[in-house]
Amino acid sequence: MTEQPPLQTQHGANRAMGDARVEYAEMLFHEAPDPSGPPQPVSELTAQVQTSIFLAMYYEMRHGHDLIAAHLQALEDHRTAVAELTRAFEPSELLAAIPNELPPAREPVD
To answer: pTM for this one?
Structure first.
């Protein structure tokens, strides 16, 4: 999983759940029989490890969707703020602040 800065939202719970599922799968994996030993049938332990990893991926994807939603909301808030700022001025006032003249030429340097 990638490291990302924490968001100031409730969406960090999905990241925490994903991390917990990975830790649980690692714990189960350490209880597994030695792979260099004789072959053994698929056990419930293997199924639990696989299920835990799939759940970790699920929570990580939910976390990604939550991040996208938070970023889209921040973008919409920014767009609204810019629209309000531009409505506060008349277009002629905004354009008047931009100089339409070229700056004076500099004197040649020897």
So the answer is: 0.49
